[in-house]
Design a protein that fits this description.
With 142 residues, this protein is mainly alpha-helical. The protein contains 5 helices and no strands.
């Protein structure tokens, strides 16, 4: 499941700025993962509390009940992840595209960039700027 979610999120990252439904989907996935992280933090805190009170047997039942609720929270997160993965597939995200050698093809579709300057554009822009600054644009010269 985690490999599928990772592959879907990788492809969603590529489409994040070009597809609003994918953006919403990815934001929901991130929120669910933050929620899962919070649950893990709560669980770690509960385990620490158990460790500190382990010498007192009267707290054992309370601790078992507290730990039991984390199991149900974990199942809820897992079901939500499955649901979000299915929604991603419905949106057209393909988990096989974002992994392996084909992942490089997705990222290589980006047009190449260059720091070289097209001097003819710069000269044309300077000429237009000069006309505008001198008040000699096409409207005022008529």
């Amino acid at each position: 499941m985690s490999a599928t979610i990772q592959a879907l999120s990788d492809e969603a990252e590529v489409k994040y700025f070009t597809s609003f439904p994918v953006k919403v989907w990815l934001d929901r996935l991130k929120q669910l993962l933050y929620d899962a992280d919070d649950i893990l933090d709560e669980f770690a805190t509960e385990l620490l509390r158990l460790k500190l009170k382990s010498e007192n047997q009267t707290h054992l039942r309370q601790t078992q009940q507290g730990i039991g609720r984390f199991g149900s929270k974990g199942r809820e997160v897992n079901e939500s992840l499955k649901s979000i993965a299915q929604e991603g597939i419905v949106l057209g995200l393909n988990p096989s595209i974002a992994s392996g050698p084909s992942r490089l093809k997705v990222f290589s579709q980006r047009p190449p960039t260059s720091s070289l300057v097209n001097s003819s554009k710069v000269l044309a822009e300077r000429k237009i700027s000069g006309r505008l600054l001198n008040g000699k644009n096409s409207k005022s010269s008529r």
